[in-house]
# Entry
Amino acid sequence: MADTNHERLTSYLADAHSIEEQALAQLRTAPEIAGTPKLAAAFRDHLIETEGHERAVNELLERHGASPSRVKNAVMKLGGKGFVLFAKANPDTPGKLLAHALSYEALEEASYALLAEVAKALGESDVAETAERIQSEEMAMKERLEGCYDDAVDASLAAGSAELQEQLRTYLADAHALEEQSIELLERASSRDDGALAEAYEQHLVETRDHSEAIEERLRLLGGDPSSLKDSAMRMGALSWSTFFEAHPDTVGKLAAFAYAFEHLEIGGYEQLERVAERAGDHGTAQLATRIGEQERNAAEALGSLFPQAAQLSLAAG
# Structure
């Protein structure tokens, strides 16, 4: 049993290290394309923290007689560079970059919360303390990013060549594409887990289907068409985070972390959609974005409260 527990712990540490490697790949380029001084400064400051996180996790691995996974690290680095290219290819680069960064911080927050729970269960206090410290810094970065919405929206709108109403339709279409991805994720999650986690997934799945229908109805009301939905789905397909699951087994804990991160991707999107709608004088769309955004935050909070259970289920699964 001792050998099995050691393997479990080092596997979680190796996963944390590979996630930090992807974060570093993103943060080293992100300031150059941030589009606003405030967002660029947030990325630069967090790069220093993230370099410290990588060193701390690497030291824990060495202390436990293990080393980072070269395969996982290579895949995650590639994913980080791939997203930068995706952000550059979109006219609203600052906004896309911000939403993705928010969701990635949430992924790291969740991963360290799970690592801390596993370490506590296995009596590894040094790992638990380090994980909780890093988790608090990821949460602080999330807060800094959430203070950048107005600047990112202004920079994104200024960079676009289309008139404001057309840009608003694009933001709506992107929101619809994210909801469609969320439906697939929640259907997958609810069929794999049970208990309180499954209940949380199923409850939000009902809300998410309503979100998708409401956004599509709003888009059509504003003159959008099926082709705009299709085009957006193709654009947003890059945000499926397939690289995460290529590098990491689909355990209960990792699925919960991914779902938590995806909620924050949507939170970032709806915060921006609300602001774009307000600037366009479309109060109906702004109110819809506010309502859905609040439900996404509630869903994220519910998932976050279940991380201890997810960690226990992952340990029980072996």
